[in-house]
Amino acid sequence: MSSHPPKWIPRFTAVVALILLLGAVGKTDALIAGAGFVSRQDPVFHVPKQWVFLCVVPLEMVAAAYLVFSGSLERRLALCTAGGMLFLCYRTVAAFVSPFIPCDCFGSILSRLGLSAAMADDIASVAVVAVCGVSTLAWVLWKWPGGDEIAAARRA
């Protein structure tokens, strides 16, 4: 096992915190503005999206604060991995249940930049897959036996 974590993990957790804050701000903006899509049923939980948003926004804000202020790098990385995997599971189920309805998590914020709901959904999908992939890579390089050799081979 590698005894030293990769140097880029703190920057990675800060980026994940920024993504979480962006999602929380987007959901809060949609709730305050009374966007029409918040009254639609959530395809996974079968309740109005406004109730899902009201539950998820505080969780995202607390998780982002933890990623910024926690002293334990291992716990921050664990939160990134678990959160990314949970959201990936949610998005996968939502894609099967309602394949042509985009996720609204970044919608209201990115629509102010002129992006469509489908483009915002694509950006959210790429972000979720990237968080899952990078956090898994970080665990492999840090904790997997032979992680030092993998990192050395990447540098060479």
Description:
- By secondary structure, this protein is mainly α.
- It has one domain (9-155).
- The chain is 72% helix and 0% strand.
- It has helices at 9-33, 49-69, 73-97, 107-111, 117-143, 147-155.
- Helix 1 packs antiparallel against helix 2 (49-69) and helix 5 (117-143) crosses helix 6 (147-155).
- It is elongated.
- The two termini are 20 Å apart.
Q: Which regions are unreliable across 5 or more consecutive residues at pLDDT < 50? A: none
Form type: elongated
User: Structural class, from secondary structure content?
Assistant: mainly alpha
Considering DSSP H and I runs of 4 or more, what fraction of the residues is helical? over 70%
Termini distance?
Answer: 20 Å
Q: Count of DSSP E strands?
A: 0
Supply the number of helical segments: 6
SSE series: HHHHHH
Averaged pLDDT: 85
Strand content: under 5%
Summarize the structure.
Helices cover 72% and strands 0% of the residues. It is mostly helical and 156 residues long.
Descriptive key words:
156 residues, mainly alpha, 0% strand, elongated
Please give the structural blueprint.
Blueprint lengths: L8 H25 L15 H21 L3 H25 L9 H5 L5 H27 L3 H9 L1
Helix pairs in contact: 1-2, 1-3, 1-5, 3-5, 5-6
